[in-house]
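This is your field. Have a critical look at the following sequence-structure pair:

***
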Amino acid sequence: MGAPDATTSWVFNSPVELGLRSLCVLVELDPHRHDLQRLVLLDYLLVHSADVDGGPESLHPAVPQRGAEVLVRRAVLEPGLALYARRGLVSVTMDANGFSYGATDRGGCFLDTLRSRYVEALRSRASWIAASFGELETSEITRYVSTELDRWGGQFAEYGGLGRTP
C-alpha cells in the first residue's frame, strides 16, 4: 500500500475505502470528534481486528509486516476523509489542536443505503471498535498499538515506532 498519486488507481486500501471505513467508525462514535492520528489507529484495528485478543475476524489477511501499514495509512486516509467531507458525509473542524473529524447526519443515512457483506462487516467491526476503544484516550490507543505491533506481524521497532510520543 503506497500513497496515492495521479497515475495510481486502486480500490483496495484506496482513499475511497479508507474514507468509508472511517465513516463507519465516526458514525459509531458520534457525536464525538477525532483527529487523524486516532482514526489511523482505529482503522488499523478495524481491518486487523483479530490481532486484538477477543476481537472479531479480521477484514484483511494477516500478512507479515502488516504493522508497517500504520506508517503509510495516514497519507491515504487524509484524502479519503476530504472526499467524504466534500460530499457532506464527514464534518471537519479546526481548533488549536488541529483538525478533527465527525460524522454528519447524512453520513449515517448514506451508510444505511449501502447493502453489501463488506459494508455489513465494516459496520459490525466499527461497532466493536466503538465498544472496545471508544472511551480510551488516543495516547492509550497509541501505546497499545505500539506495544502490540511486533506480535501482530510487525518488524515495526526498526522503523522507530508510530512517530508520536505515547
